Amino acid sequence: MGNVALNQTAPDFEMEDFNGREVTFSDFRGESNILIVLNRGFI
């Protein structure tokens, strides 16, 4: 994945939510704020 410039639309991607459902970034297009948490966990 390349760099995203200021005022450029972010590329679409998909990942699982906390309930195991697949969601895509484009599902939230038009929302004013989106928080993405990438948790690596602890061992």
Describe the secondary structure blueprint for this structure:
Layout: E1 14-16, E2 22-24
Antiparallel strand pairs: 1-2
Short précis:
The protein is mostly beta strands and 43 residues long.
Q: Enumerate the strands of the largest sheet in spatial order, edge to edge or round the barrel.
A: 1-2
- Please tally the β strands and state the result: 2
Helix content: under 10%
Counted up, domains total 1
Main beta-sheet annotation: 2 strands, antiparallel
Mean pLDDT reading: 82
- The structure class reads mainly beta
List the total number of helices.
0
The run of helices and strands is EE
Cα-atom radius of gyration: 13 Å
Which of globular, elongated, flat, extended, rod-shaped describes the shape?
A: extended
Poorly predicted tracts of residues: none
* Beta-strand share of residues: 5-15%
Instruction: Give the N-terminus to C-terminus distance in angstroms.
Output: 28 Å
Describe this structure in words.
- With 43 residues, the protein is mainly beta.
- The chain has strands spanning 14-16, 22-24.
- Strand 1 and strand 2 (22-24) form a beta hairpin.
- The protein is extended and about 35 Å long.
